[in-house]
Structures are given as C-alpha cells and as structure tokens.
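**Tokenised fold:**
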Amino acid sequence: MLFLRDIIPCVKSDFHALVIDDEPQVSGFVAQVLRTNGWIVQEARNAEQAFDLLGERDWQLVFCDVVLGGPDGYEVLRSFSERQPKARFVLMTGHGSAAGALDATAIGAYDYLVKPFTIEDVNRISNMVRDRYQSRVSRRSVTGETTSEGYVSDIPLIGKSPKFVECLKMVGRVSGTNLPVLIAGESGTGKEVVAKAVHHRSVHAGNAFVTVNCGAIPVELIESELFGHTKGSFTGADRERTGLWEEADGGTIFLDEITETNPLFQVKLLRALQEGEIRRVGSNRTVKVDVRVIAATNRDIEEEVKNGRFRQDLMYRLNAVTIHLPPLRERREDIQLLAEHFVKQVHSPGAQALRFSSEALGFLENYQWPGNIRELENAVLHAASMSDDVIYPEHLSAQIRGAQKSLRVSETPERILPDVWPTLNEMEEKYVDEVLSHTGGNKQAAARILNIDRKTLTRIIFRSKKDPSE
C-alpha cells in the first residue's frame, strides 16, 4: 500500500500552519501533506475556532475553505490580514471561478485553490512559503488593499479554467500597485475587460478610465489626440485642446494596440512615462499628469522589438507586469459559461429564458474560435435571434457546424474475440492511462474528462502501480 510519506520527503521544521475546513476529509488531507512536509499543523472546523486560534501564535501559513457554515473564508482572511499580515493565506473552494481568484488575491490571499487539488499544489505553496522564511527575505505584498467585493458590476469576468483563474490572480495582485501593466493576448480575448478590472480594483477606481485605440488613430494625429495641442499648432488647430492623457489625470489610461504606434511617437510616450509629464503639440510648457498606464497588444512585443518596429526601452517601461490572456480554445471549460451569459443578455423582461441543447453546446465547445470571446458573443446572439426557446445546432452558423470533427468508427469484416479477457479493473486502469497521456499528465483535466473526483483518480493510479506480488 502507498502512503503520503512514500510520495513526499519528510522534512523537520518549526513552521506552523493552520487548516480551516468543515470537511474533515479535506482538512485531514491538507494537514497530512503539510505534516509529512515538516510543518506543525493545527486544524479548525469553522471560522469561530480559527478566530480563537488567531492569537495563539504566529502562523506562517493558513489554508481556509471559503464556505464554512457561518462567517466565510473571506472574513477569516480579513482578520488574519489585519492581525497577522505576514501569514500566507490560501483560500480553498469547491466552486472556483476566475472572479473568485481575483477577489481572493485582491484582498490579500497568497493563493487560491479549486477543489479537487493535488498533493503537488499543497507542496508547491508550502515550499515557497517556507523558502521565504528560511531565506529571511522580507517581501511586501503587492496586492494592496481594496474594498471591492465580488464581480465588478459592469465587467463580466466569467470562467473557471485554470489558465483564466491564474490570469485573474495576477489581476488581483497588481491592482493595488501603481505599476504599468502590459496585457498580451489575441484579438477578442477581453484585454479591455481585464484592464477595467485592474482599474476598478485600484486606488484610481473613483477617477477616469480612458481608452485609446492606438491602431485606429492616424499616425499624424496620435500625438495631438493623446497629449493635446495649442491653437495654431497645425492646420485646422483653431483652438487649444486638452489631450486624452490629461483627461485621465488621477485615473487610468488604457493604450490598446500599443504596437501599432510608430517609433517617433514612442519616444514621446516613453518620456511621458519616465517623467510623469507631457507637452502639448505646439507648446514649450510641460504639464504634470498623474496617470496609471495599462497597455495591450495582440502581437508578440518582443518580436516587434527584434524587427525594429517597437522601442526596447519603451517595452521595458510598459511591461513592469505582463498579463497573458489565454485564447478561448485554451479555456474550453469556460465556453458554456460564457455562452449562457451572453444568451441572457437577449432576454426581454418576462420572456422565457433561452437555453442550449447539448448538441449545440458540443458544436460550440469543439469550434476553434479564432475570434475568441468576441466571436462567441456574436455567434450566440445570432443563434438566439433564430431560436424561440432552445438553441439547436441548426441555429448556429454553417461555419461553426462545419468545423465539427466527425467521429468515424472503423469497420472490420468480422469481430475477433480475445483468448484472454481483461478484468474490469485492468480496462479501467488502461483507459485512465490513455486519458492521462492525452492530458499530458494533468490529473485535474483527466478527472474532468473521466467525470470522477481527484481522490478516485488517485486511487486508480495507485492501484495500477501497485506491485501485484504484495
């Protein structure tokens, strides 16, 4: 029989961890992994017990479930943030979402785990926290403080896929800083949505959020649009004009398609970022402007630098933090959630809710979505306009239906029966191995495909590796 101690090296230490969960199985699992990894662990079943333990000692690491049957994990997190700010706090949830990850990290969580998680997940966090204390490196949290909770009212941050959850964790961490942010991703992945999420959770939230589509402004006018101009500075400048940069003073300016700008303008943009001041076209006077800059691009910015189309010094100035948005084809778990969100936007008050047939959802989930979320939204709105109550495949565009991969069953002239029949366990283990091979060893993805929980998958894996002679 295989035990945790056979998988994890046993390490001795004086580090204290607290595990808070009303499910003994989850709490016991996390506690055992931590103990085997050398931590001194105490368990609590609810928030009240956690509050009692809060003042007992300095905790280096806290794992806490979100739903505790009373005060929730966010309330426990706030209490620890106030009284033990050096403790690394990890929220655990069985109903994870990208917005949940954003909320957790924005108010100070060190990490956010979606159940079922793995031994490796717990080990990764505990090792990072222990290394931090052992090296005596004091790292100040970059999450800052925020009073925002839940979804930003006008921003649909929808998804539960691991890549999108990780992306939103980064949003939560950078929101409280004043660092420039570069958002990279294909067209239609929601770069402006993420930029607004950063703004709405920052100290600039009460001030302006100004969007500039750099690719839509003629090259000869972009400096005037952004920095303003004086009267008579060029033909047609019949009055003095304030630029968009000044309009964003005290707030955030979002420079979309930043790689579409030319090198001459990039020099002036670099100066504005470095000096915190701008000069209107035709003026010798500089104007101080306090603005947080978020830029976005659908190109490989490093490739643009190599090809001489973008200044390297400006790239370094803009990407103090880079957030990579995954394309929709890499977050297929989110397609149904997004589609159902978009179809709700079509409802008239009192009208019957539209829903998708399983076949239509299958077409949506198998399509590659080169236009990403924007294309999905258009496809859903088109399908909704063609349907009365249920969206079927025929309501989808021919392009989406035509992309569905046909499943072909090979035909054999006769059925050949084996001489030795494999056992059901052997068939199960072989199928699990094939699914794990398909997912590249990703157990969480494999468990989703197999429609089983992580614990059952782990048991099958252990069983298949067990020595038959034992």
The first strand starts at residue 16 and ends at 20. Confidence is low (pLDDT under 50) at residues 1-13, 135-155, 405-416.
